[in-house]
TrEMBL record:
<dbReference type="InterPro" id="IPR012851">
    <property type="entry name" value="Spore_coat_CotF-like"/>
</dbReference>
<keyword id="KW-0946">Virion</keyword>
<dbReference type="InterPro" id="IPR012347">
    <property type="entry name" value="Ferritin-like"/>
</dbReference>
<comment type="similarity">
    <text>Belongs to the CotF family.</text>
</comment>
<keyword id="KW-0167">Capsid protein</keyword>
<protein>
    <submittedName>
        <fullName>Spore coat protein</fullName>
    </submittedName>
</protein>
<keyword id="KW-0749">Sporulation</keyword>
<dbReference type="Pfam" id="PF07875">
    <property type="entry name" value="Coat_F"/>
</dbReference>
């Protein structure tokens, strides 16, 4: 079963990015100092490896696992999120070569890797005619989304990702302007 041009090109881009993510996550895991962060990165790397291997397998013989929609049972409660800015530390580039990253840099890199993976896999899925390939890419996008949220929770709990807020009446005024039809 041949793939269409869009499918082949999109999957090539997704796989190239996934290889980069897997390689970088190994480096991040080795450099992280917090054991919880190391474990999180290890689990996310293993997840990326599974996604990569499933996609490669399917593109080689078209008999890979028939994907079902991914279901995640872990749902965070809004009560666990810390809202508001609490004197956020300034963020600037390092500006000089370094051989060691610190945990906050690693968290930001892992978070952005997942966000980009979610966007890129969902966009790639929209170009696929093959329903199994399409579902695999959507599953990978959903997995990246959930992994990004786990990194956000880790960072938010440590004050590394603060959630700006607006006055309650401003948010309500804006959102309540939409009415049921």
């Amino acid at each position: 079963m041949p793939f269409g041009a869009h499918e082949a090109l999109e999957v090539h881009e997704v796989l190239t990015a996934k290889v980069c993510m897997i390689d970088h996550f190994l480096q991040y895991e080795m450099q992280a100092s917090d054991p919880t962060l190391k474990d999180l990165i290890r689990r996310h790397r293993n997840s990326a490896l599974r996604n990569y291997n499933e996609l490669v397998s399917y593109t080689h013989d078209y008999t890979g696992v028939v994907p079902n929609e991914v279901q995640f049972s872990q749902v965070a409660s809004p009560d666990t999120i810390q809202y508001g800015l609490r004197n956020p530390a300034p963020v600037t580039p390092i500006g000089a070569p370094t051989t060691q990253l610190y945990d906050e840099q690693i968290c930001r890199a892992v978070l952005h890797s997942h966000k980009n993976s979610a966007k890129n896999n969902m966009a790639a899925s929209l170009e696929c005619a093959d329903p199994y390939l399409r579902q695999m890419l959507m599953n990978t996008a959903n997995t990246a989304n959930y992994n990004a949220y786990e990194v956000f929770e880790y960072m938010n709990a440590r004050g590394l990702y603060q959630v700006p807020t607006m006055r309650d009446h401003t948010a309500k005024t804006m959102l309540h302007s939409y009415q049921p039809f």
